[in-house]
Amino acid sequence: MVTHVPAEAFGDERGALLSFVEAQRGAIRRSLIGLTAQQAASRSSASELSLGGLLKHAAETELNWLRMAQQRPSETSRNQETWADSFRLAGDETVEGMLEFWEDIAVQVEKFIRSVPSLDDTFPLPEAPWFPEEGRVSMRWLLLHLVEEHARHAGHADIIRESLDGSTALELVAKAGGYAGQS
To answer: Are 40 and 89 in contact (CB under 8 A)?
Structure first.
């Protein structure tokens, strides 16, 4: 799981942006290391957020943005009645299954971004009160938005995890790298 984003190869803007997206994915994934299903589903504050729910939300959000860029319908579209379901594992959903789901999305995002002719290519935003009328964004904007979205939720995940068992982000980085317990 990436923690340091290396400098891009000269002229590889796509690679650099994809690396920053992956670094933020890693931060969310690491927040779940060593937790039971019950811990991953638990809420550590008055907020409705849980680590399992943040994982699902990040994965679904990334898929939704990918499908918008591809101008295809998303398999995980939500409406007002199902919006809260995007923030919790439901039915037979598991952390492991959601991690696999997200990994598949990450592969799709990279393949798509590497296939577009230019990061300047745009796609339309859907009609929504929070988007400008007839708004369009570039592929570059999409990647920057994914960094922003995932980083915001990685911060949430850090706080929730530390509230659950005291584990800090740096301790989880060490644990993920096999350095836990070493001085």
So the answer is: yes
Check the CA dihedral 21-67-99-95 and report its sign: positive
Token pair for 182: 């070493």
93/106 Cα distance (integer angstroms): 19
Nearest one of 96, 95, 114 to 21, comparing CA atoms: 114
Q: Specify the length of the chain in residues.
A: 183
What DSSP letter does each residue of 88-150 carry, written as one string? S--TT--HHHHHHHHHHHHHHHHHHHHHSS-TT-EEEPPS-TTS-TT-EEEHHHHHHHHHHHH
> For residue 95, what are the β-bridge partners?
none
- pLDDT single digits (tens) 64-100: 999 999 999 999 888 888 888 889 999 999 999 999 9
Asked if 21 and 143 touch (Cβ cutoff 8 Å), the reply is: yes
